[in-house]
Design a protein that fits this description.
Elements: E1 4-8, E2 13-20, E3 23-30, E4 36-39, E5 47-48, E6 51-54, E7 60-63, E8 66-67, E9 76-80, E10 85-88, E11 101-105, E12 108-112, E13 124-131, E14 134-142, E15 150-154, E16 158-162, E17 165-167, E18 174-176, E19 180-183
Antiparallel strand pairs: 1-2, 2-3, 3-4, 5-8, 6-7, 7-9, 9-10, 11-12, 12-13, 13-14, 15-16, 16-19, 17-18
Amino acid sequence: VQTNVAGQVENAVLLFGGAAAGAPVAERFIPTPAPRFEPVPTTAEPRSGHAAIPLANGRVLIVGGVGADGVPLATSWLYDPMTNAFLPGPLTLAVPRAGAAIFTLGSDLVVAGGQDATGAGVATAERFELAGETFTPLGAVPAYPRWGATATVLEHEAVVLVGGEALDAMTSKPLPVNLIEVYQPRRAATP
């Protein structure tokens, strides 16, 4: 089972991703007073290689990844810790992708890079305006076609993308990326 951890949610940690016997896996780890795992009922399709983004309202956005058939997904789901349930998500990616660097910065959600259905890197970053639970597409900006990059939020509303893998133009094999991209979502991206 491949699982993504969303971080702390209502004094618990949400674990979501992968599949067991063809059904999606979702659990909450509650560390106190007696540490335990609790199942989370879900109708979300099984996925791995996705991102789990905690939102300001306490909910968690699950976006991207690959389905049980190995095909990248464009769909999203929302986990609500108050009801311990998943709801259909408020956004659909223009390009289905897995392994994207997904982050929030101010009122922007950015989905950068990732792999498409052919296994190639996606050379765009999709931007969405976060307003409550409404995600308004802001268009795409160029991005290095890689997957598995790490996003680090810096001061002054900037994010640095580091690492990941990309297909080598000569061999078509994945190679480590030694390129840094700086995103300032309210401005143009600077590779």
